[in-house]
Amino acid sequence: MSLNGFTMSDFDVFNIEGLEARMEAIQSKIQPKFKELGDLLTNDLSILAGNEMYLHIARHARRKVNPPNDTWLAICHDKRGYKKHPHFQLGLFDDHLFIWFALIYEAPNKANIAESLLTNSNLIMDLPNDFVISLDHMKKEATLIGTMNESDLIADLERLRDVKKAEFLVGRHLQPNSPILKNGQTLLDFTKDTYEQLLPIYQKAMEQS
């Protein structure tokens, strides 16, 4: 069975008005692809991490009025939830697909993790220039590592350490017209490669979790 990639119609889901209609489209069009890709990625990450990993697909259950601007899958060592832990993501906004290692504001050990990453900032700075950093998982904006110097990264990690609501995500973006997205196997391979390059950062974070 061939893997499904993502097409422009998947990104167009975020132009649908209304919570119920957009959620129906997310559930019918995007989530089956998340499940298909996510099961394979979770198995791969379990092998790489050396422990069981679990797939979580965003349900957006807390939303009562406003439809989601993005949707995602997350992979984590905790079967019950991922938000309090270092984890991996793959998801869509209307204008790009994101592939992340993520530390979001709910992680209780962010300060210790940030301190460890400050000591090992080369793990981030040595990533390829097409990797990007985001400081807020709810916003589209991200900064290419290739345009940053180490002092920029240090400032981001100090903020992660010192600011309660601070976040840190590092990974890759793909535009909707990227040929990588059109073929599910190509996207799977690209995502696996991204996660493998992010694994030392994940492992360093997990030492403090």
UniProtKB/TrEMBL annotation:
Transmembrane segments: none annotated. Pfam families: DUF1054 (PF06335). InterPro entries: UPF0637 (IPR009403), UPF0637_domain_sf (IPR053707). Belongs to the UPF0637 family. This is UPF0637 protein ACFFHM_08720.
